[in-house]
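Dear U.,

For the methods section draft, I wanted the exact inputs and outputs in one place so we can describe them consistently. I've listed the two proteins in the order they'll appear in the manuscript figures. Please don't edit the token lines directly; just add comments below if something needs changing.

First protein:
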Amino acid sequence: MNAAAALTAARAWLAQDPDPDTRAELSALIAAAEAGEDAAASDLVDRFATRLAFGTAGLRGRLGAGSNRMNRVLVTQAAAGLAAYLLEKAGPDAPPVVVIGFDGRRGSARFARDSAEIFAGAGLRAILLPRLLPTPVLAFAVRHLGADAGVMVTASHNPPDDNGYKVYLGGSDDGAQIVPPADAGIAAHIQRVADAGDIGALPRSSEFETAGEEVVEAYVGATATVAPAPAGAAGLAWVYTAMHGVGFETLSRIAEVAGYPHPISVAAQEQPDGAFPTVSFPNPEEPGALDLAVATAQEAGAELIIANDPDADRLAVAIPDAAAPSGWRALTGNQVGLILGWRAARRAADTGAASGASLACSLVSSPALQVVAERYGLDFHATLTGFKWISRAPGLVYGFEEALGYLVNPETVKDKDGISAAVAILGLAAEAREQGRTLGDLLAEFDAEFGSFASGQVSVRVDDLAVIGRITAALRAAPPTRIGDTAVVSFEDLAAPTSGPPLGDILRIRLEGDARVLVRPSGTEPKLKLYLDVRGDSSADAAARLAGLENGIRELLAAIG
């Protein structure tokens, strides 16, 4: 798209934009471009040369005016397209039911109300959750209310200027996130709405419902049963941070119902704030994100730190560690995922439910979960990345992915749920405490029981997405024969496997000594991610092997340039 075409598209967009803020933003850009300012013209091309793509992650992007941004025009088009899709699939007996949730990000409440009005105007039964709430509550509500679909307005742990639109389906999908071909069907309807022009012509109605607190209370009650507090919970001092998100109220209530002591809150991060003022990036995986939680824990003499991301679908855990510079060590997603998987496997075996039951994790998560499943006689599934796939594993009793996502109660929520996972971790910590042990001891026991696995990640954040394509193309064109001092055993391109269907844009490299590297572009951020897994004779040996593999990967990336 050239500058003239972008100007034409911008004027058409402005004519239908109902939001005074984005109208002012776009009007100023149009005026500057008309005055010959090159930067404004380039900005318009960036905003209008393409659209935010609707896919299995729904929509996610930067806030602002234009088809390549998140805004009220784009959200209205998405809602109208989803409504058309649901009506097309609906039977004649009753209108489709859609439940809508929203978090504390900028624009979330307005986007949710726009969606409810569009759904109601299209003849659907639209139910808006009563206030800003965690994503897992919306995922729960789809099943609890018997809805045909659910929409959560959130960008999860993305930067402050982002927002998104996440879609779930009921019925045979049972409240899971959308997968093909539903994503393409919804996207086609959205495109037809966009091609029709003015969103002002779409019917709207304020005759939508607002759900009562009963929905939230039902989620609280169901989640509290994940791990009722054992005797060892008495006096447990634990710090919690909501990371300026929406988790505090809900998790605090569940902890109370389940019988755990009230959390010691990181006060500066307790209330929802879409500006995320105390963190450079609202993701508990990022360096520095847990600094305030650690300071709070040190001051309180706490035994455990629990953190959710802003929409509370992810969980981070930190434990005391005298060897760490701060005295606290953040556990990796794989470490948390494996001890929760061990918990699930034991419970399935103890209750006689192992037959037909399964554990699942994404391809890029630790291979140790398969070892756990086999030990307890459970099935195991390695899935594509994302809980839209993990949640669909046959016989699932537990699933996780290394990016701090855990599904501990699939009978209640068919998505990652950082709140129910937090309750499960509180249960493990309390049980260990009752026996004079800690979560750190559980990790050591896992190594002794199943072998010493270690995982790491190298991330390449880029400003130009083409860089990611250049790196993966170079690896495909000339697969490495060694990484560092270790020989490569096999190189697989899972986008074009030698047998079976494509599994996605993932490269899997196996190395001598039971090690592997997986390479994939991030689905939500401008990053290339490289996942490293090794197995050693001891935890020290595994750590040394992982360090060597990481050095080898960095050398390989430097050579590619």
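Second protein (the one for the lower panel):
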Amino acid sequence: MRIFHVLLMTMLLLFAPAAARAQGAFGGGAPHIAAELRAESAAPQPGKDAAIAFSMTPEPGWHGYWQNPGDAGLGMTVKWTLPKGVAIGPLRYPVPETLLISGLMNHVYEGPYGVLAKLTVAPDVPLGTKLPVRVRADWLACTDKVCVPEGADLALDLVAGDGAILPGGRAQFDGWRSHLPRPLGSEASYAIADGRLRLSVPFPAAASARDVHLFALADGLTRYAASQSVTRQGDRLIIETEAGQGLKSDPVQAVLRTGDHVGFLLTARPGAVPAARSVTAQTVLIALGGALLGGLLLNIMPCVFPILGLKAMKLARAGGDERTVRREAWAYSLGIILTCLALGGLLLGLRAAGAAVGWAFQLQDPRIILLLLLLVTAITLNLAGLFELSAFGGGDRLAGKGGATGAFWTGALVAFVATPCTGPFMGAAMGAALVLPIGAALAIFAGLGLGLALPFLALAHIPALRTRLPRPGPWMGRLQKILAIPMALTALGLLWLLGQQRGVPAILLGLCAATALAIGLWWLGRRQLHGRRGGLAVACAALILFAGTAILLPTHAPAAAASEKGLPFDEARLASLRAAGKPVFLYFTADWCLTCKANEAAAIDRDETRAAFEKAGVTVMVGDWTNADPAITRFLEAQGRSGVPLYLWYAPGREARTLPQLLTPATLTALVS
């Protein structure tokens, strides 16, 4: 692959006119990455160093390459034409991003970036001397489907002077410098065994490190596309990945990314590296226990309890038919567990592909909210007696295969609706699942499903519990209609959430779709009263209704209004508040998280809490995760969490304190007392 890159660059340099024509064919002559040569000072001082930079601005969907492009691509090449007494140092690249395409790992920049260099003017150059700097720069611009060789002849006209820097120029160059890798004060060590590279990097335990990735400056250290595992051991980071080919036992250099375009330039020498600590059985068991308890508590959610109540009524009807009861119990549980495994596996797959998503990612898509709105509307009308639906009913036809099938899909729906909100015990468990090996992670997702299914399994397998259920009678019909109320409230909540994500037009579309579905189900119910069918026609119409409404949904979220609850989350603003010694209460929430809303109503949005915070000068900062936000996702991961809620208290001069997931006014007012 690297030989191919060298040959390609040679051909590009030899056939520059053809390359220019290729560029014109794809972009009408305009470069897909605009380049400009800039100087921090237009009057560099003789005997002193100054900074110049290539300001690179890719078009949306295009990217440029780091000095080591990875498995594919080409870095920038430059050829300087300099006046006497001027020298230019090597190019200095910012910390890159990773881009995996078809199994090839690329080291790229998908947004504007600056490549810096040091300009030195000799001490004997007289003041006022004109310093024309010329450079031929060539680079490769790519999308995920096509690459175009590009280049430009750039110029700077400087004059030897006093080195004055305008404020605007300093701010711009300071921004570029903040993305350059900083030299790591201590050397790292590495060892290779059985084709695996283990690298030990000195890094303070208290220092933040997130989205860690190792970028080798030269070929041979790593296989670029191989996954990299990172663990902390005290004041060291242990990175393990697949070793490259042809690496000799020599010092190597690499860039270690520890944040968004933040990283360190390190030198590593062969040496002893402690083995990464293995995941202990105790860690997995603790996380599994949290998932079981969290799943058990999800049964009291208003969108789950009615369906659980219907299943309990089914048991009451079944009487002593143990075989039927247990078959349906395990079908219901299997539907829940497999859905949790599917959601967990999809989450792990998306994260492995580079997406910044966390638990409950499905409720960040308004189309999923619309689908749930229509499903919950149908369940509500079924409970209210508008039409018959055996999958959620419990009549005699549920005996045998039909009953087990209905129970399975009921369990799948329960899991899909109930799992998004991380309540008590679930936060740490879901956070652990995202860093554990895939087998242990899937076990935790299955444990969550088992906890959600436990009440029905207990009723099915413990006859003493079933004997306490009331005997079948007219009360069951009345209870079924009562259970329609929390399901209707759930539908209203989903409609509100749709509006939060896509504004008032989405609410109107969702309301129209739900009304149209209700009319179709009413028609079905009228036909059922006369012994006629029509379920298939209604089901097809409902699918068409969903597809059409989903297409009409607005594609962008409404403009955010100023929050009355606090400042919107901003990591830089948080750092400045802490540096100024201000106390900060930071919490992360989402409109689809019932635990979050309960805490806000019961503790955060209370007069006594607001008064105590105002008196103590506390700044309240809110991270709204209703819609997908990669910055919030990365911050949550840095705190060991994969979902909301999360509550952090920053006392002046102290590190963050994580508060319980269930809050009271006393918990918050005590922070400032």
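Candidate sentences for the figure legend, describing the second protein: Residues 1-28, 390-402 have pLDDT under 50 and may be disordered. DSSP finds 19 helices and 23 strands in the chain.

Thanks,
Y.
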